[in-house]
Every structure is written in C-alpha cells, then in structure tokens.
Amino acid sequence: MPFLEGNKISDEPKLLFDKADPSAIHSQIYWGLRNFGPYDKELTEIRLGVICPDNVKTQVINLITDLQRGKPIFPGGMKRFFRVELTLEKIITLNSMDIQEYQNKSLEFIYNTTNRDIDVVLIYIPKTSKYFTETAYYRCKAIFASEGYSTQMITNDLFLNLKWSYLNLAVAIFSKAGGTPWVLQDELENTDMIMGISTSNIISKYRREGDLKRFIGFVNIFDNYGKWMFFQGTATPYSKENLIENLKILLNNAIIRFKSIKKYEPTNLFFHYYKKFSQIEKQRIIEILSEILPNFNVCFISIDDSHIFRIYNKSTNDGSFPRGNYVYLNENETLLSTTGFSTLTKYRMGTPKLLHIRANTNNNFISLDNITKQVFYLTRLNWATVSSINREPVTLHYSKELAYLTAALSELEWKHITSSSINQLLNKKVWFI
C-alpha cells in the first residue's frame, strides 16, 4: 500500500443559530438550538395536519403534544428550540394501511383543505425500503407535493426510540414549514453560489405516459454560508438533442432567482455532482454561463463514494482515519474522511468510507484545500437530522433524495411540482427530504 501525502482540516465548522446575533454559535446542533433557537426566527407558528390509522390516532396526538410542550431530553419543546407554536389543525384517519387507502385519504385531505391553512402534513405509514417506489411513503409525498404541501412521514419505529427522536422530527418539521434552523458561522472561501445538480431517475414505470423517458432533473441552490436557498427543476423530457437547451433554461432560471434573493450577481459558482463531469459537459456549462453572466469563475466538483480506495491511519490504535483528514491523489483530487473519529462525538463510524473529490476550475480561483474544506463543511448542513456526523455534503444528499422521489412520481405530478404556481409554494421549503 502506498503512503500518501495528507492534510487535516483544523476544526469542525461552527454553526450560527441567529441571523441577528453573530455570537449565537455552537459546534453542536442540539446545544445551539437549545441555547439560541433557530437561525431564522420569523416563523412563529406551524400548523399541522395528520393522516394516520384510527388505532394510533391518540398516540400521534400525544406525540404532537410532547413536541409542543417538551420532554426531559427536549425541554421546552418547539417553543424553546425553534421559537414556534405547533398546532394541530386537521386529522383524517385511515381504515387500512393499503396504498389505495392512503391515496384516497390524501386526496380527501387536499380537497377539503381551504386557504392552504396547513404548513406540514404528518403521515403515519408502514416502514418500507426507500428503493421500493410503489409505497405509501412515495404516493403520499407525490400527491401532496404536486399540490404544494410539505409532508413528514413517521413509522412505528419512531415510537420505539422516541426519546432520541423528538429533536430530529422537530427540525424536519421546522425546515419543511419553511424555517432555516442553522447555517455556517463563517463564509465559504471564494464562494457565492453552489449548485447540487442531478438528472432524475426514470419516472415511475407504473405512471409513465408513453415511451421510456428520463428528465433533466433539478438543481438545489446553496449560498456562501451553506444555506439551502431553493430548488429549481424542469419537466421537459430528456434527450441528447435538447439536453443543452434544457440545462440552459435551468441554470438561467436558477441564477435569476439567486440574484432576486441576494440582490447581487454571483461570480464564484460551484457545481456539485455525484459523478465525474465530462470535458464536453464542462465546456457546455461554461458556454451557457458565458451567455448569462458577464464575469464568472466556475468550479466543477464531483463527489464519489463508489470507489475502491481505503485508507488506514497507523498512528491510531484501530487504524481509523479521522474525520476531516484527507490525502492528495494528484493536483485535482483528494480523498476525504467524513465519518472517522471526530471531536464532535468521540467515536467513529466503522471503517470510514471516503469521499473521492475531483475538482476542476476555469481559472484556478480556489485551492484544492479550500475545495475539500467546502465539501467537508457542507456535511453539517443537512436539515433532516441533528446528527453531528453526516457522511455526504448536503448538496449531494438533497440531490439523491430528489432522485429517489422522482422515480416514484407520475409525469403529471412532476409537471405540477415544477410549474410556477406550485414551485412558488415549494421552493422555500426542503419538502423533498
């Protein structure tokens, strides 16, 4: 085995929990929220709807009460940790846990809800694999998303380990209602706009119109503090002939929306992708950006975990490679450990599965060390969990979650989600996590 030259990211990033108070920082999410509340305190009420089997109705209502009032491990509940009131506005019970029953009750819920007076719909479902698309999870998520609603699924497993589930559930509900729980304290180096880009999986074979199609998918946009800003998608069918034109529309709309929110034009742009960018892809994207922006720097970052590389550290008793350590493969590639021994948790997650990072810039405006640091810091921005350790950067994780979801959608549902009327409702919420 070769010995590789390596480096270490000096510290875990500090997180900011109040946009009006720069001193509201902590490295641990639990204590940051407990002491300071969320970064965004503009959201003051979250109105819940519920769909659940009749025999667990009381259990689910008690869960909502506990979330609002708090428990010993979650003192003060949503009011303390997120500065919001949680209210139960509507509940519909199921007669069975068949998919058709979930579909019928979801449609009944939507048709009987006026003025969009529900922020998040909590749905009790049977536990199923994320790889099976014909499930209550995906059917409910698709039906509600296509009408502009965020959903949060719960299963019986949550109640088996409820003590440690309150905060994860609370942060997911808060985020899906449109709140921002935390961001990075410090700006990412030479960064304006980060795009987590992906092409969707094949639209559900059970719900496809006509021949087999793929869709140019979506981008999730993040800012220089790692904050998720919005989702941008297109429902135009994918083909080699129209790929570039679709990508141009996607990027143009994303940059226009970025400018409208930030009030400035992005200069330093990053593309995160789960596979290697081809030379043609990079060239085409640069050509598109040249038509949209007068001046720009661009960095293409592929982040892959399906490689054969393994690294062992001979200076530790068990050979584990600590989180935040990385080695250079060449001037454009590193192997980064995000799940090894960490000062955040004092334990490691087995033999670390490294991230293989490849980076290319158009004019070397950022170093490979800072690119690796960017990827590392973005592992702390997943608003679906308060876990201190996340293996993937949020850019990649959110893209994968959307890809799983699109594999279960009908073409009509995806068209609704990406339509201007529904997108206006969804693009401020991480509805897909």
Ordered list of secondary-structure elements with their pairings:
Elements: E1 6-8, E2 15-16, E3 25-26, H1 29-36, E4 45-53, H2 57-69, E5 70-71, E6 74-75, H3 77-81, E7 85-94, H4 99-111, E8 120-124, H5 136-145, E9 150-154, H6 156-160, H7 166-176, E10 183-184, E11 193-198, E12 218-222, E13 228-233, H8 243-262, E14 268-273, H9 279-292, E15 297-304, E16 325-330, E17 333-336, E18 355-361, H10 368-377, H11 394-406, H12 411-417, H13 420-426
Parallel strand pairs: 4-7, 4-8, 8-9, 11-14, 14-15
Antiparallel strand pairs: 1-16, 2-3, 2-10, 5-6, 11-12, 12-13, 15-18, 16-17, 17-18
Helix pairs in contact: 4-5, 8-9
Description:
There is one protein chain. The chain has 433 residues and is an alpha/beta fold. It folds into two domains: 136 residues, Response regulator (Rossmann fold); 228 residues, Ribonuclease H-like superfamily/Ribonuclease H (Nucleotidyltransferase, domain 5, 2-Layer Sandwich). 31% of the residues lie in helices and 21% in strands. It is built from 13 helices and 18 strands. The strands form four sheets. The chain has a nine-stranded mixed β-sheet with strand order 1-16-17-18-15-14-11-12-13, with helices on both faces. It has a four-stranded parallel β-sheet with strand order 7-4-8-9, sandwiched between helices. Helix 9 links the parallel strand 14 and strand 15. Helix 4 packs parallel to helix 5 and helix 8 crosses helix 9. The chain is globular and about 60 Å long. The chain starts with 5 loop residues before the first strand and ends in a 7-residue tail after the last helix. The model has no long low-confidence stretch (mean pLDDT 88).
